[in-house]
Amino acid sequence: MATPLIGARVERKEDYRFLTGAGQYTDDVALPRQTYAVFVRSPHAHAKIKSIKKDEALKAPGVLAVYTGEDLAAAKVGGLPCGWLITGTDGQPMKEPPHPPLAQGKVRYVGDHVAVVIAESQSAARDAADLVQVDYEPLPAVVDASKATQKGAPVLHDIAPDNKCYTWALGDKAAVDAAFAKAAHVTKLDFINNRLIPNAIEPRAANATYSRADDSYTLYVASQNPHVERLLMTAFVLGLPEHKVRVVAPDVGGGFGSKIYLYAEDVAVTWASRQLGRPVKWTAERSESFVSDAHGRDHHTVAEMAMDRDGKFLAMRVHTTANLGAYLSTFATCIPTILYATLLAGQYTTPAIYCEVTAVFTNTAPVDAYRGAGRPEATYVVERLVETAARDMKLDPAEIRRRNFIRTFPYQTPVALMYDTGNYDATLDAAMKMADVAGFPKRKEEAAKRGKLRGLGYTCYIEACGIAPSNIAGALGARAGLFEAGEIRMHPTGSVTVFTGSHSHGQGHETTFAQVVADRLGLPIESVDIVHGDTSKVLFGMGTYGSRSIAVGGTAIVKALDKIVAKGKKIAAHLMEAAETDIEFDRGVFKVAGTDKQKTIGEVAFAAYVPHNYPLDKLEPGLNENAFYDPTNFTFPAGSYVCEVEIDPDTGVTKVVKFTAVDDFGKIINPMIVEGQVHGGLTQGIGQALTENCRYDPETGQLLSGSFTDYCIPRADDVPSYQLDTRETPCTHNPLGVKGCGEAGAIGAPAAVINAITDALGVRDLPMPATAETVWKVIRANRKAA
Amino acid sequence: MHAFEYHRPSSLADASKLATKGADAKLLAGGQSLVQTMKLRLSAPSDLVDLNAIGELRGIKSDGKTVTIGAMTRHAEVASSADVKKAIPALAALASMIGDRQVRHQGTIGGSLANNDPAADYPAAVLGLGATVVTNKRRIEADKFFKGMFETALEGGEIITQVSFPVPKRAAYTKFKNPASRFAIVGVFVADTGSGVRVAVTGAGPSVFRQGDMEKALSARFDPASVASVKQKADGLNSDLHASAEYRAHLVTVMAKRAVEAAMK
Q1: A708, B250: Cβ pair inside 8 Å?
Q2: Cα dihedral sign for A381, A384, A386, A388?
Q3: CA atoms in the 13 A half-sphere facing the CB of A617
Q4: Which residues of B touch A287 (CB under 8 A)?
Q5: B251: distance to nearest CA of chain A, Å?
Q6: What pLDDT was estimated at residue A2?
Q7: Is the pLDDT of residue B30 over 60?
Q8: A580: how many CB neighbours lie within 10 A of its CB?
């Protein structure tokens, strides 16, 4: 009937409400008898709490309550759990220190939660928060992971006297050592993957209410996965029955990972709503977001690549120290391990890889997944090494990649993953053509005439999306399932409501998922609405992270669609007095094969709900199906990026003048939305490479980059107009052939930018972010050396 | 934000009286710095005296020799003024580089000068052009106006009413922006007044300052090459998360050279 919707540039259904101010975010939710919470946060990076005096605050106008860690402990409120257990090389489980929602006895980072003040208005609560008198005994602090493991460093948690959470390893160490022993050349780099602050446009927020009528709670929260939030909060922290808690993540303004986790504030307001018998709302100020949202990255890595005479990779050895911050955030422990070391094969046939990771506690905000989550760090390691190896070996950087590309699929890497499909030559060839790599020498010459240094750098990245399957993840330490759930509700008159456990907070699911359903059922897209983000409506969900939504959530929907079609065939067979095996279904129409007899999906749905002419003896009425889908494997998007920069040698300013990205995301549902995702990802990746840097004072542990005047996220005029294209090798193990696209840009861009800058400057390495001063210093050192 | 008394006088005299009445009264011009510090609770004035209803504080006049700008004139008005563009294009260009679009439509020249942020742009133009700051009490030469970090010659109850810029022979402002805040890490205003050259540097030090060595070199010969070899000392310059003192010192020379190039175009 209609033209295919899958693959069409359908305008986003959700944009009307977003662009006209009709979105409903957590802070927009105003409940009767609303109260407001403000958190008292630690001004110290590390200190003993000697006493907390609430009296003055409690006397302040409008104040209803002040709660501290002692109150929560007395009420037996548990600590915030970590969702992934890592087992170390010594066979011991990771050190899992208590993570009380409000500090007990000690604070461990600037911004740590000390007390919550609840009042009739936000300003009353804010004023009273200043009146809570906390007597601190400051302790020495450590913010650098490498320093935290040294003898004599301040100790954060008694159970980890060396501040190490775990030392973990992946790969065959003996095979790697043997390969290095016979290598013709070894390229080695030592670098920092800079710490980032996520900065979603909507700050975190929570609004909880308790009903004594049925002893139930409702929590509105800016979250990427409401069901997981409910599971963790009820089972591990508050000890509540799950069916008495509803969690709603309404419109959410971006997350980038930072809203996956169960945070102290969510727990505190939920608990307090029952104490007060009134709804309690908290919305982060931007300054609070900077200090208290989970940060990203922060690795120190030494990486080596062993090669034969022809630049064929023989082995890779990687040692990483990962900063986890002061406490374990929900998925902190799997990011620098399971989602990092497993990606170190990249697009290459490197036969032996060994990676050892030491994860460390420091007096900084907790670190967890941030757009890419482990995979940008891995790609940075691989692609900086590969590019540097090419320069060391006097090989063209594209050529050394081609000499090592994986070309036979499925491919088992030495770091646990099995790539199902890919065509790395196709994306590299297309990217080089589109970027006009052949014309680069001329452009470089022309730039030199203008006094500018021009450089070109590549990334050929691999990504693993839709972490799965649950049983293998469980064996690796996951404490949750990794499936997704979906439900298709055909209404009697032929429109459809789709319920998904995936959560959209900017990705455009309400459009892409509707495209999939409307396409399959042959309905106009206006007849399909997507419902997500409410545990009382959606049957279950694991939420959105790791670019999993279309590959896992989308597949669950397709599985439910299959059941709708299967049941529809039975109904259609009855209506047309044909055998079920003779019914064919195509885009909303059931046909009797070889005849002109047909019934539309709308007619079938009507018959299902008004079952006058219906096989009631064999079939239940109604047309409503759900499905749970647990993938058999990850999906493996891949691509090739070419970055071209121009540097002003007088100031050190780097301008990204050209950025070409050719990605293989498998089948694409909506190219426009995919391009938007790539634009955003690339911009964040360029931000990491050039401008973004979370800095703590090394002595005091104060956050120095705690505002937008000090933490530089890139603006539109900091990035070029991107040149994008795609190549397609459909995923082999999901019905849509999709792979995921949300994080690719942020994964691939940093190495491409730094490869281009090092090319322009003729240096081996320089630290991220390559700020103007950093680049200027390198140029000056070069000139002195020359 | 803490609570405060809000006043909106319609005359300069009333404003001046109100400014000294409250325990810790502050004048509100464009509010682009003050309101932010109040929201962060870093500043808690007892009274806020809003100058936005005083019509006489706004407007731009030019007589060919002097450009006079009312204290409450917005940056965007200066940036787009045909009179300013004609008489002192460098001043219009400077105004167009301040902050972002929202800031330029709200922020005022008087507010910027009274605040004297070490990284603000306007102080460079005022000092570079040898302008005169006119208040409700007196006329203050630029050389005597800027006293140090966030410090000026203004006294309690004294309100800037206008700024009078002599039209130079040629001038230019170049700015090395902080990529995050868009304030000046280093901004250099170079003006060939006809009777000598003035070079004012903002962003680099605790307060805007004149670069005497560069002025001497340029007065002898107004050419980029004249300043290219003049080195700014790093001692006493700002050093922070965004730029070290030595990098700022280096940028002073680069920006000065580019300002001279621009002025000669």
Answers
A1: no
A2: negative
A3: 1
A4: 40
A5: 7
A6: 54
A7: yes
A8: 12
- Best A710, A775, A783 member to test B by mutation, with max B CBs in 10 Å, is A710
Interface test with A, best of B178, B231, B250 (most A CBs within 10 A): B250
Q: Report the pLDDT averaged over residues B65-80.
A: 98
Interface test with B, best of A291, A693, A703, A709 (most B CBs within 10 A): A709
Residue A460 contacts residue A479 (beta carbons within 8 Å): no
Query: Per-residue pLDDT tens for A584-636?
Result: 999 899 999 999 999 999 999 999 999 999 999 999 999 999 999 999 999 99
DSSP A371-422: TTTTHHHHHHHHHHHHHHHHHHTT--HHHHHHHHB--SSSEE-TTS-EE---
Which residues have C-beta within 8 Å of that of residue B115, sequence separation ≥ 6? B33, B34, B150
A678, A741 Cβ separation under 8 angstroms: yes
- Percent of all residues in chain A with a pLDDT value above 70, rounded to a whole number: 100
Nearest CA to CA, how far is A754 from chain B (Å)?
Answer: 18
Yes or no, beta carbons of A710 and B241 under 8 Å apart: yes
| A532 vs A545: CA distance, rounded Å | 14
Residues A285-291 have a mean pLDDT of: 97
Task: List the helix and strand counts (H, then E) for chain A.
Answer: 20, 28
**pTM: predicted TM-score of the whole model, two decimal places:** 0.97
β-bridge pairing A216-221 and B60-62:
unpaired
CB-nearest partner of B180 from A127, A712, A772 = A712
Tell which of B174, B177, B251, B253 to mutate to test the A interface (max A CBs under 10 Å): B251
Q: What are phi and psi of A264, to 5 degrees?
A: -55, -40
Please answer yes or no on whether A709 and B243 come within 8 Å at the CB atom.
no
A191-211: pLDDT as tens digits: 999 999 999 999 999 999 999
Question: Smallest CA–CA separation between B52 and chain A, in Å?
Answer: 27
Tokens of A522: 């042959």
* CA dihedral sign of residues B43, B49, B53, B59: negative
* Higher-confidence position of A3 and A75: A75
User: Using CA atoms, how far apart are residues B156 and B76, in angstroms rounded to an integer?
Assistant: 29
Q: Which residue of B has its CA nearest to A692?
A: B180
Chain B residue set in contact with A, beta carbons under 8 Å? 1-2, 40-41, 176, 178-181, 183, 241-244, 247, 250-251, 254
Closest-CA residue of A relative to B1 is: A123
- Residue contact A710–B180, C-beta within 8 A: yes
A334-381: per-residue pLDDT in tens?
Answer: 999 999 999 999 999 999 999 999 999 999 999 999 999 999 999 999
Would the CB atoms of A651 and B1 count as touching at under 8 Å? no
Question: Does A704 lie at the interface with B, CB-CB under 8 angstroms?
Answer: yes
Residues A258, A474: Cα–Cα separation, whole Å: 23
Structure tokens at A373: 């989550």
- Pairing of β A113-119 and β A106-107: unpaired
Q: Does residue A80 contact residue A267 with C-beta atoms inside 8 Å?
A: yes
A123-152 pLDDT, tens per residue? Answer: 999 999 999 999 999 999 999 999 999 999
**How many C-beta atoms lie closer than 10 Å to residue A437's C-beta?**
18
Helix (H) or strand (E) holding A181: helix A173-181
Distant-in-sequence, close-in-space partners of A454: CB < 8 Å, separation ≥ 6: A440, A443, A444, A447, A448, A644, A645, A646, A647, A657, A760
Closest-CA residue of chain A to B253: A650
Provide the β-strand partners of residue B172. B190
Q: Which two tokens stand for residue A356?
A: 């050892």
Burial tier of A186 (Cβ tally within 10 Å: 0-12, 13-18, 19+): middle
Instruction: Please report the sign of the dihedral spanned by the C-alpha atoms of residue A79, residue A80, residue A83, residue A85.
Output: negative
